[in-house]
Design brief:
Length: about 900
C-alpha cells in the first residue's frame, strides 16, 4: 500500500521521497518536511496527500477506514512530540489545518487555527498557559474561523457581534477586551452558530478535525479555486493536500509575534530581507490587513519614516534566529523564499517556506544577481523566469516627465502603471471591463471572492492591508499594478463615492495608479513605451546563447517592425498584406477591385494599389534590413472589405462612378454562407491571378528599390496562404516566378527570393510531402489549422470554449495554446513529410501559438527552424525557446 499520510517534525527521517514531493504532499507539506529535515524549528505535524484528495472527490466525498487509521496514528506522533493530548481537558494539544496544493493558490482556503478547543479544553488552555485572556481569545478565534471556513456561517455575523460588544463597552481596539469579555463573546458566537445551523458548535475534537479535513478537500472544487485554476492554467485533477500541525502561538504576550517575510524584495528583487510582523498576534492577522503590520528590518522602517519598532529592534534575538534561517533557506533552495513564522515566548518557529511569488522585474533581477553571487548558473537563471511574466515589462510605464495630480499615496505593492475608471466591487469591474472599459478596482481590502474583478481590472487600489495582503500577493501573481494600504482612501458604498485625501470622487471617475511608487493620481497620466534594458537585456542575451530556434515576428507596419526588432526579432515570419488594404488612403481602390465585374475592372483598381503596396514593402525591407521577411499574399474573404451601410456605398459610388444599385448587387453576389471556408486564401489567387500578380510585382519592385538604396538586397519570402493541394501551389508559384522574372528583367537586377506556403489545412499537412516539391518553406498557420482540424470557428469559439476548458475537454483554449495531441500531430506529420521531400525545407510557425511558451516547447521538439510571434511577444518567445532547448 502506498502511504497517504506523512508525518514531519519531532525527529522524523524523511527517507520516503514522496514526503518531500510537492506533487504528492503539496508545496506546503513538502517544504515543511524538507525544513524539518534540515533541522529547522518546525512544529510537528502531518500531511494527507493530494492523491487522497483526488480519491475522496472521485469517490463521492467518503473517507476510507485506512485514512482514518493513518490520521489517528499521525496524530499520536504529534501528541508524543509535544507531550500533549488532543482533546485533553487539562493540557490540550491544539492544531492548525491548512490546504496546500502543488502550486500555491493564495486564498483558496483559509486556515483553521486553534482546532481542538471546546468548552472543556479551553479551561485546560487557561491553566496550561497561565493566561486566561489568551485562552478565551483563542477559543473565539477558533469558533469564528471554523464556522466561516468549515460550517459556512458568514464571517460578518461574528464581526458585527464583536463590534457591538466593543461599542457597548466603549472599546476601540480588540486589545482592550478582557478575559471575561472574550468569554462572553464565545457564548454569543456559539449562539450565532446554533441559530444559523440549528445545531450547536461541535464540541467533539475528532468531529472538528474531520470537518476541517473535509472542508479542505472540498475547497479544491470551490468556485474561487476554479476561477484561480482557470486563470493560472492549473489542472483540476491535481487536488490539494491537507496539513495538520501542532499550534504555536504568536499571541502569548509581548515576547510573542507572528510574521511573513521574503528573503529578497519580491517587488523589486533587491537583496534585502523584506517582511512584516505583528507583536502578540496570530497568523492571519498579518495577511488579513486588519491591523497594519510593522516593518521587519530597521532599514525598511527608517526608509518609510515609520515609528513602531521593527522586529530587528524590538526582538533582536528572535530576529537574529530568523535572519540565520533566511540565509540557510536561500542556500538550500537556491531561490528567494517566502516564509511564515511565529515567535512563541521568544522562540522562533517556521510555519512555511516556498519559492516566493515575484514580479517580472524582481524575477529578472534575482536571476541575474544569483548568477553573480554564484548561487545558480546561467541555465538555471533562464529556467527560473516565467516567460509569460515578461509581459508585465512589455507594457507602457508612466512618463516620468508628465505632470501628476497626486491625490494620495499607498504602498507600492505591485509595480506597473494603470489608468482607468474607478469601480467599487468585483462584479462591476468585470461587467465594465467586458464592455471594453479600463477599470481600477478600489476596495477597502480584497478577498478571494474578488479574484474575477481583480483579473478584469487594470489596477487595484486598497485602503487597508500591507505589502503581503491578499490584494498585494494576488496582484503580483497576476502582474496587475497594485497600490495597497492607502489609508487616505475612504469608501462609501451607499453613495458609491470615495474620498482620497481631501478630494471627493465617484465611481466612474478616472484615476491612475503607479504601482512602483504608490502614487494615486487624478485622471489619465501619459505613458512611455517599454524598453529592453538592464537585467532584462542581460537575461535575454543568455537566453539567445542557449536557444536553437530563431524568433521572428508577425508585423506589417514599419512601427511594429521597428519595435519587434528592438525586442530582438530576427525577421518577419508573417506580414499579413490585407492589413495594408484597410488603410483609409486605399480602401476605395480595394473595394473597386473587389466589386469590379471583370478582369479589366480589377486591373484598373490594382493599378492604383501597386505604388502603395510597393511603398509598404519598401518601408518594411528598410526597417528589417539584413533579416528575412515573409510576405503573405492576400488571404481573407473579400467580403471583409465591402462597404457597410448606405453611406459607405454612396461614398464609394461617388468615388468610382458606378451606381449604388450595381455595387449592392455585386456585394450580394459576393455574400458567402461560410466565408472562412469560402473564397479566400490562395483561391483568390487562382481565380483572380491579377491580385497576386500585383502583390508579387510590388514585392519585387520594392526589393529592387531597397537594394539600390542600401546596396544590400533583402531576401523576400513570398508565402501563399490556405493551400490544400500541390497543384494550387504550382500554379501560384509559377505566377510569382514569372512576375519576378519580368520585374528583374525590367530593373536589370538579380535577386534571391523564395516561394513557400502556409500549412494551415489538414489536407496540406497530410500532403506535405508532395507540396514540398513546390515550396522552399512551410509556415504552420496554426490558427486556421486549429479551426479546420477541430471544426471550431475561430471567430465564434469564444462563446462556448470556456465551458469546454472548465470541464477539462480541452486543457487550455486551443486557439491560445496548441492542441498538441491533435493539431500537433498534423504539425509533426507536415514537418516530417515535408523534410522527407526537401531536406533543407525551412519550417516555421506563425499562428498565435508562436508566442505561447507551451506551444513553443512543442515546436522545439518537432525541430522547427523558427517561431513567429507578435512584437510584444518576441522576448517571451526568445526566453521560451531557450527554456525549450534547455529542457530538451
Ligand atoms: C494562421 O492561420 O495561423 C495564420 C497565421 O493566418 P491568419 O491568422 O491570418 O489566418
Ligand atoms: Mg490563416
Amino acid at each position: 500500500m502506498v502511504k497517504q499520510v506523512y508525518t514531519f517534525g519531532g525527529g522524523v527521517k524523511h527517507s520516503d521521497p514522496r514526503s518531500r514531493d510537492k506533487v504528492i504532499c503539496g508545496g506546503k507539506g513538502a517544504n515543511l518536511a524538507e525544513m524539518a529535515g534540515i533541522g529547522l524549528p518546525v512544529p510537528p505535524g502531518f500531511t494527507i496527500t493530494t492523491e487522497e484528495c483526488v480519491k475522496y472527490l472521485a469517490e463521492g466525498a467518503e473517507f476510507s477506514d485506512q485514512l482514518r487509521a493513518d490520521v489517528a496514528e499521525a496524530l499520536t506522533h504529534i501528541e508524543k512530540t509535544v507531550g500533549k493530548s488532543f482533546g485533553d481537558a487539562s493540557d490540550p494539544l491544539l492544531v492548525s489545518v491548512r490546504s496546500g496544493a502543488r502550486v500555491s493558490m493564495p486564498g483558496m482556503m483559509d486556515t483553521v487555527l486553534n482546532l481542538g478547543l471546546n468548552d472543556e479544553t479551553v479551561q485546560g488552555l487557561v491553566s496550561a498557559s497561565g493566561d486566561e485572556r489568551f485562552a478565551w481569545d483563542s477559543y473565539r478565534r477558533f469558533i469564528q474561523m471554523y464556522s466561516d471556513v468549515v460550517l459556512g456561517v458568514e464571517h460578518h455575523l461574528f464581526e458585527e457581534a464583536l463590534e457591538i460588544a466593543k461599542e457597548d463597552n466603549g472599546y476601540v481596539n480588540d486589545v482592550e477586551l478582557s478575559a471575561s469579555d472574550w468569554q462572553k463573546i464565545v457564548k454569543e458566537y456559539k449562539a450565532i452558530v446554533e441559530k444559523e445551523l440549528d445545531k450547536p458548535f461541535p464540541q467533539d475534537v475528532q468531529e472538528q478535525l474531520w470537518g476541517a479535513i473535509r472542508a479542505v478537500f472540498d475547497s479544491w472544487d470551490s468556485d474561487r479555486a476554479k476561477v484561480y485554476r482557470r486563470l493560472n492554467d492549473i489542472p483540476g485533477g491535481w487536488g490539494t493536500a491537507v496539513n495538520v500541525q501542532a499550534m504555536v502561538f504568536g499571541n502569548m504576550g509581548d515576547t510573542s509575534a507572528t510574521g511573513v517575510a521574503f528573503t529578497r524584495d519580491p517587488a523589486t528583487g533587491e537583496k534585502a530581507y523584506y517582511g512584516e510582523w505583528l507583536v502578540n498576534a496570530q497568523g492571519e492577522d498579518v495577511v488579513a490587513g486588519i491591523r497594519t503590520p510593522q516593518y521587519l528590518t530597521k532599514a525598511a522602517r527608517e526608509r518609510a519614516g515609520a515609528k513602531p519598532l521593527s522586529m530587528e529592534e524590538a526582538m533582536p534575538e528572535a530576529y537574529q534566529q530568523l535572519a540565520d534561517v533566511f540565509e540557510l533557506l536561500e542556500k538550500h533552495y537556491k531561490d528567494m523564499q517566502d516564509i511564515e513564522f511565529t515567535v512563541e515566548r521568544g522562540k522562533l518557529w517556521m510555519l512555511q517556506t516556498r519559492s516566493g511569488k515575484r514580479t517580472a522585474k524582481a524575477a529578472l533581477k534575482m536571476a541575474v544577481d544569483m548568477v553573480a553571487e554564484g548561487l545558480i548558473d546561467e541555465k538555471t537563471a533562464i529556467l527560473r523566469v516565467d516567460p509569460m511574466a515578461l509581459d508585465q515589462l512589455l507594457h507602457p510605464t508612466l512618463d516620468p516627465n508628465a505632470a501628476r495630480d497626486v491625490l494620495g499615496k499607498g504602498l507600492p505593492a505591485s509595480p506597473g502603471a494603470a489608468s482607468g475608471a474607478i469601480v467599487l466591487d468585483a462584479d462591476t469591474a468585470e461587467k465594465r471591463a467586458e464592455m471594453g472599459e479600463a477599470v481600477i478596482l478600489v476596495r477597502v481590502e480584497t478577498s478571494p471572492e474578488d479574484i474575477h474583478g481583480m483579473h478584469a481590472a487594470k489596477g487595484i487600489l486598497t485602503a487597508r492591508g500591507g505589502m503581503t495582503s491578499h490584494a498585494a500577493v494576488v496582484a503580483r501573481g497576476m502582474g496587475r499594478c497594485c497600490v495597497s494600504g492607502a489609508s487616505g482612501v475612504s469608501i462609501d458604498m451607499k453613495s458609491r463615492t470615495l474620498r482620497i485625501g481631501n478630494r471627493e470622487l465617484k465611481e466612474g471617475d478616472v484615476i491612475t495608479l503607479d504601482g512602483s511608487t504608490g502614487d494615486i493620481m487624478a485622471g489619465e497620466v501619459p505613458t512611455v513605451e517599454p524598453e529592453l534594458a538592464g537585467d532584462f537585456a542581460e537575461l535575454m542575451i543568455w537566453a539567445d546563447k542557449h536557444r536553437r530556434m530563431k524568433v521572428r515576428t508577425n508585423a506589417e507596419t514599419p512601427a511594429d517592425c521597428k519595435m519587434a526588432r528592438q525586442f530582438g526579432a530576427e525577421g518577419i515570419g508573417l506580414c499579413r498584406t490585407e492589413h495594408m488594404f484597410f488603410d483609409a488612403s486605399r480602401i476605395s481602390a480595394v473595394r473597386q477591385m473587389i466589386l469590379a465585374e471583370d478582369e479589366a475592372g480589377r486591373r484598373a483598381a490594382l493599378e492604383k494599389l501597386l505604388p502603395e503596396q510597393r511603398d509598404d514593402f519598401a518601408q518594411i525591407f528598410m526597417v528589417m534590413a539584413g533579416l528575412p521577411v515573409t510576405i503573405r499574399l492576400l488571404d481573407p474573404p473579400l467580403h471583409e472589405f465591402l462597404p457597410q451601410g448606405d453611406a459607405e456605398f454612396a461614398e464609394l459610388s461617388e468615388t468610382i462612378g458606378i451606381g449604388v444599385d450595381t455595387l449592392k448587387r455585386r456585394a450580394d453576389e459576393l455574400h458567402e454562407m461560410n466565408p472562412m471556408l469560402g473564397h479566400r486564401g490562395c483561391r483568390l489567387g487562382i481565380t483572380f491571378p491579377e491580385i497576386y500578380e500585383m502583390q508579387a510585382r510590388a514585392i519585387f519592385e520594392a526589393a529592387c528599390e531597397v537594394a539600390e538604396r542600401l546596396g544590400d538586397a533583402p531576401v523576400p519570402e513570398v508565402m501563399i496562404p490556405l493551400v490544400a493541394t500541390k497543384r494550387e501551389l504550382a500554379i501560384l508559384r509559377k505566377l510569382v516566378d514569372d512576375t519576378a522574372a519580368k520585374v528583374l528583367a525590367e530593373k536589370g537586377r538579380s535577386l534571391d527570393y523564395m516561394v513557400g506556403t502556409m500549412i494551415e489545412l489538414p489536407r496540406a499537412a497530410l500532403m506535405a510531402g508532395e507540396i514540398a516539391e513546390e515550396a522552399k518553406f512551410f509556415s504552420f498557420g496554426t490558427n486556421d489549422l486549429t479551426q479546420t482540424t477541430l471544426g471550431v470557428s475561430r471567430d465564434d469559439a469564444a462563446r462556448f470554449l470556456s465551458p469546454y476548458v472548465e470541464k477539462g475537454i480541452y486543457a487550455r483554449d486551443p486557439f491560445v495554446s496548441l492542441d498538441i495531441e491533435g493539431v500537433g500531430q498534423l504539425v509533426q506529420l507536415g514537418a516530417d513529410r515535408g523534410r522527407a521531400t526537401r531536406a533543407d525545407l525551412k519550417l516555421g510557425i506563425c499562428g498565435e501559438h508562436g508566442g505561447d511558451p507551451a506551444s513553443i516547447a512543442f515546436c522545439e521538439k518537432v525541430g522547427l527552424d523558427y517561431v513567429s510571434a507578435s512584437p510584444f511577444r518576441v522576448p517571451i518567445a526568445r526566453l521560451a525557446a531557450a527554456q525549450a532547448a534547455l529542457a530538451g
